[in-house]
């Protein structure tokens, strides 16, 4: 049995710790006593550790005894946390989805002779793995990923709930969105180009631009067209746009009754309760990954569909399952020496290896997260 530490005891971090504890000795660390106690009630065999991951010296000391680190801290502190882990010469799987370019740490990881697999969730994550796999088999021209986490029961006004912090969701709504068109990187405001599509078993959803391509902009520059869009129930984005354009997401302090107040802090506090997903509240994760290209002179379209639901038996949210189990698959991939390259690797550079791609698909399938493949020939 290996010793693993998970940094972050949120819904996804907790799900990963529980999954990994079936085969390994797991410790989970968080700054919140409440989050740690909640996990301890679910699984007493997991060791808990209260630390502030922003304390670099404390973090370095805390991870020293472990064989591998799983980083699930909030995105705003992800890059520096990952850097500290690499400097401590620890292999790491990261799902903090920070805005910085993870490949900037590649030289450091190589220097320390460690493996870091980053962006290892559902999207980014599994969509990258699928892209990396088919990039080896086909001459790809087009890649599109549509993805969203949704509550089963719609609640006015937002028809949305999140298993993670509103601050990370708002980041998705404010960070400029990049996509690739005719080999050119196009940047548009987040939540632009709203379209409506039909998803089997779910119904009509609206899609909008979000900055989800991340590393593949740089690792797959030979693909002509690449786009990632987020899905929500119809009407959600109109309300969020109203908040954004009215200044509710601003980081510039405003003075109210002599007190400086950051609008984003206020909005996040309000939306925390409005968007907070209940512990046993049912939700779904929906994703459609479409790849088009040529294989042996034949033009093909490959489509992967995911529609995953809250698991009542284990009381695990779908977003925790689809994101967390992708990361725990990566943990076992590294621990079982199925992937031994040194450096920083976004998932597309892991999925290009057939044995690695199959490991992820089978690991998720064993946990009830099923990716359905559809293949068609284009005349």
Task: Write out key terms for the chains shown.
379 residues, alpha/beta, Rossmann fold, Dihydrodipicolinate Reductase, domain 2, seven-stranded parallel sheet, seven-stranded mixed sheet, 13 helices, 34% helix, globular
Summarize the structure.
With 379 residues, the chain is α/β, with parallel strands linked by helices. The protein contains 13 helices and 18 strands. It is globular and about 60 Å long.
Structure in words:
The protein has 13 helices and 18 strands. The radius of gyration is 20 Å and the shape is globular. Helix content is 34%, strand content 29%. It has 379 residues and is an alpha/beta fold. The model has no long low-confidence stretch (mean pLDDT 94). The chain folds into two domains: 3-121 and 318-370, NAD(P)-binding Rossmann-like Domain (Rossmann fold, 3-Layer(aba) Sandwich); 126-309, Dihydrodipicolinate Reductase, domain 2, CATH 3.30.360. The strands form four sheets. The chain has a seven-stranded parallel sheet, sandwiched between helices. Helix 11 packs across helix 13.
């Amino acid at each position: 049995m290996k010793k693993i530490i998970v940094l972050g005891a949120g819904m996804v971090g907790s799900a990963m710790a529980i999954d990994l504890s079936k085969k390994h000795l797991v410790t989970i660390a968080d700054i919140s006593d409440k989050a740690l106690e909640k996990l301890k009630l679910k699984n007493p065999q997991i060791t808990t550790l209260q630390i502030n991951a922003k304390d670099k010296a404390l973090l370095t000391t805390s991870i020293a005894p472990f064989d591998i680190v799983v980083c699930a801290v909030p995105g705003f502190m992800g890059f520096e946390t990952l850097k500290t882990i690499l400097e401590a010469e620890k292999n790491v799987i990261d799902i903090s989805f920070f805005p910085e370019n993870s490949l900037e740490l590649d030289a450091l990881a190589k220097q320390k002779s460690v493996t870091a697999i980053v962006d290892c969730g559902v999207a980014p994550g599994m969509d990258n793995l699928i892209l990396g796999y088919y990039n080896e088999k086909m001459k790809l021209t087009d890649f599109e990923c549509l993805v969203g986490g949704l509550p089963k029961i719609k609640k006015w006004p937002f028809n949305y709930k999140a298993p993670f912090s509103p601050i990370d969701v708002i980041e998705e709504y404010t960070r400029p969105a990049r996509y690739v068109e005719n080999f050119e990187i196009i940047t548009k405001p987040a939540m632009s180009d709203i379209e409506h599509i039909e998803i089997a078993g779910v119904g009509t959803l609206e899609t909008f631009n979000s900055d989800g391509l991340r590393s593949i902009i740089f690792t797959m520059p030979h693909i002509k067209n690449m786009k990632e869009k987020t899905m929500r129930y119809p009407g959600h984005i109109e309300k969020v746009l109203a908040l954004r354009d009215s200044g509710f997401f601003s980081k510039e302090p405003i003075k109210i009754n002599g007190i400086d107040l950051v609008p984003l802090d206020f909005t996040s506090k309000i939306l925390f309760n409005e968007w907070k997903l209940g512990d046993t509240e049912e939700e779904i994760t929906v994703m459609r990954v479409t790849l088009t290209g040529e294989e042996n002179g034949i033009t093909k379209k490959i489509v992967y569909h995911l529609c995953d639901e809250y698991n009542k038996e284990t009381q695990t949210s779908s977003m925790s399952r689809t994101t967390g189990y992708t990361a725990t698959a990566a943990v076992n991939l590294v621990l079982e020496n199925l992937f031994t390259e040194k450096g920083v690797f976004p998932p597309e550079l892991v999925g290009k290896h057939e044995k690695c791609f199959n490991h992820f698909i089978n690991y998720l399938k064993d946990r009830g997260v099923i990716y359905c493949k559809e293949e068609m020939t284009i005349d």
